[in-house]
Amino acid sequence: MFQPVPVFVGLRYSLAREHSFFVSFITWVSLLGVALGVAILIVVLSVMNGLGTELRDRLLSMSAHASLNAGGASISDWPQVIQELKGAPGLIGAAPFLDTDAMLSRQPAMSGAIIRGIDPDMEAQVSTIAESMREGKLNDLEPGKNRIVLGRMLAYQLEVGVGDTVTVMTPGSGQAGAADGAIVPVLREFNVSGVFEVGLQEHDSVLALVNLQDAEALRGLSGPTGIRLKFADVLKAPALARQAALRLKPGLQLRDWTQDNEAYFRAIRIEKTMMTLILMLIVAVAVFNIAATLVMVVSDKRTDIAILRTLGMSPRGVLAVFMTQGVLIGWVGTAIGVALGLAIALNVPFLEQALDLHIMDPDVYYISTIPSETRSADVISIALSALALTFVATIYPALQAAKTQPAEALRYE
Fold first, then answer.
1. Strands 109-118 and 91-106
2. Inter-CA distances, 140 with 133, 212, 219, 284, 403, Å
3. Are 68 and 227 in contact (CB under 8 A)?
4. Helix count (H) and strand count (E) of the chain?
5. Phi and psi at residue 27, to the nearest 5°
6. What is the mean pLDDT of each run of 10 residues along the chain (413 residues)?
7. Which of 10, 18, 50, 404 is 20 to 30 A from 129, alpha carbon to alpha carbon?
8. CA-to-CA distance for 33 and 266, rounded, in angstroms?
9. Quick one: which H or E segment has residue 238?
10. Residues 6+ apart with CB under 8 A from 158
């Protein structure tokens, strides 16, 4: 009894059962459409967030959050650089590395690869490669032993395993007997001491690890070509890396993980945006149904509107009556959709197990279960968008109801 009269009447119209069957049916379809659209949006965005996080973790398992390099030249004073970086906000590890292009061969197979020289003792500070070893140990890469660790796909392409020997060929120049400017390849035999698998073709099919000193001998350098950095918060790493670089003298170039993997994450953002727009069409269809429902209710209630106007209700009050009805459908549908979407998104692994579903076949995909990461910002934006659309849908029918003239509506009553 303490409610404003327009809201009270709007709630009575929404909850009353004397509507025609068709109007009631459209009302329920509209409500379920909003709920279904909101729920699907929450689930799909949660799964895409989970896949994005899984991809980021796999990419960073072999590459740190940021790296310092000297434009391809060696950093001979790298221990001093690492010492100067100690104590930088958020920095939890730093390790040297040296990357070089190479050709690996074992008759009759041959494959291009990236040879990465690392310090096995320091590598654990910046990557999780030791946890991805399928055969052998990372610490087997002892200096001077010419041992190499291959990615699983690379080892498969070369048809080699632990204990086999591969020939590593790298470009070199300036050797005795060579013509001026001629590039003479450097050949060296390496023993396969391990195989790793991180679950990304970019790493597993092209990357090979050797000891840093062996990589320096291959390139004829006196130090690593870069230093990789790892921070406590991967999302804040770009800003923290720039702040840490201020401790160093000019000359070193800084790159962070967002620059190194920009193409991957741009593709994920575009795909996420397009999926959001496409799935939002479900909510849009439901919103059109709400507008159609209210138009039919306004037509059916012309006599009631005229009586309310005769009793003194203003056009603004009539507007509020029908906006209340439309907004109620939208709010209830959105609330049901949010609850259903969260229930599914937060329990995707459990539902896969309970329903005995194997959407991601472990024999085909590196990911055996569907990852899901529900973010409150996504849920809030979806709910607010659905509420805004349903609110907009009520404006036209409510305005038409407010324009009803009592005399015209009651002329033939």
1. antiparallel
2. 12, 13, 21, 60, 84
3. yes
4. 15, 10
5. -60, -45
6. 57 56 69 87 88 77 81 85 89 91 88 91 87 88 91 90 90 53 77 87 86 88 89 87 87 84 78 83 80 75 72 75 79 91 85 68 59 88 88 82 67 58
7. 50
8. 31
9. helix 237-245
10. 104, 105, 106, 109, 110, 111, 150, 166
Distance, CA of 256 to CA of 86 (rounded, Å): 18
Could you tell me if 295 and 367 are in contact, meaning their C-beta atoms sit under 8 angstroms apart? no
Q: Residue 81 is inside which H or E element, if any?
A: helix 78-85
pLDDT for the residue numbered 5? 60
Alpha carbon 121 to chain centroid, angstroms: 32
Query: In the block, which residue shows the tokens 């305005």?
Result: 399
Cα 219 to chain centroid distance, Å, stands at: 37
**Confidence (pLDDT) at 97:** 92
Strand 147-151 relative to strand 91-106, pairing: unpaired
Burial class (CB in 10 A: 0-12, 13-18, 19+), 145: middle
Contacts (Cβ under 8 Å, ≥6 apart) of 67: 97, 226, 227, 228, 229, 254, 255, 256, 260
- The token pair at 5 is 């009269």
| Whole-angstrom distance, CA of residue 287 vs CA of residue 29 | 10
Query: Which residue in this structure is represented by tokens 């494959």?
Result: 111
Token output for 363: 């024999």
Tokens of 145: 């032993």
Q: Which residues contact 327 (CB under 8 A, 6 or more apart)?
A: 387, 390, 391, 394
Quote the pLDDT of residue 3: 52
Q: Percentages helix, strand, coil for the chain, rounded to the nearest 5? A: 55, 20, 25
Q: Which pLDDT score is estimated for 174?
A: 43
Report the pLDDT value the prediction gives residue 1, as an integer from 0 to 100: 41
259 token code pair: 């620059």
| C-alpha–C-alpha distance, residues 218 and 206, integer Å | 18
Q: 3-state SS string over 186-216? A: EEEEEEEEEEECCCCHHHHCCEEEEEHHHHH
With the CA atoms of 401, 406, 408 and 413 taken in that order, what torsion angle do they form, in degrees rounded to the nearest 10? 110
Please list, residue by residue across 375-405, b when 16 or more beta carbons sit within 10 angstroms of its beta carbon and e when fewer do: eeebbeebbebbbebbbebbeebbebbbebe
